[in-house]
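Put briefly, the fold is written as integer tokens. One such record reads:
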Amino acid sequence: MISEWCDTWKLNIQTEKCEAINFSNFKQTPSSHLKLYDQNIPWTSNIKILGIIFSANLSFKQHFLHLKKATIKRLNALKAIAANSWGARTTHLLQIVNETIRSKLEYGCHVFITSSKSEILTIEILYRTALRFATGLLKWTPIPILLKEAGQISLSLRIRMLAERFFLKNLSLGEISPLFHYLRPLTRRLRLRKPVPLSIRL
């Protein structure tokens, strides 16, 4: 059926790049065989969709591991240009952190917002490390002072704010939003644990 639909709408699919995943809490791999244009589609336990790695058990452990590896490379590059004697200015380094590291860590946060605190803490530590490189503060500098000197808020708070903004925006769109019917039942149980100050700007 998929191949017929693609032929009807003149869409070409590269079958060698296709993978199938079964979202379930069970670890068994489905025994059924999928074919597209007479080619077998392999089953996988992790799949990357629009830059986010989904696991079969709907966890984002592999996604956070991928973020950690990618961010460490960027931290090494940031450290090379953040020397105290000849490196770039703090304001420029903070701009680099926000554009190259923070943006990557918070991408798709409305999807993995339900992840455990330990997984969120993994990328939070990476973001703090980037801020330390940019500001030149020592490792034992208290986190509130680090954020104050950098003029930033914690990544976990920012992720929560961005996710809430995404959901509220889709709710405000009403029937126009494809997520409206899925989000509307959740509004009855939606309770914010801590109010976010209106003075905080993203």
The longest helix spans residues 61-80. The first strand starts at residue 34 and ends at 36. The chain has two domains: 2-44, 59-163.
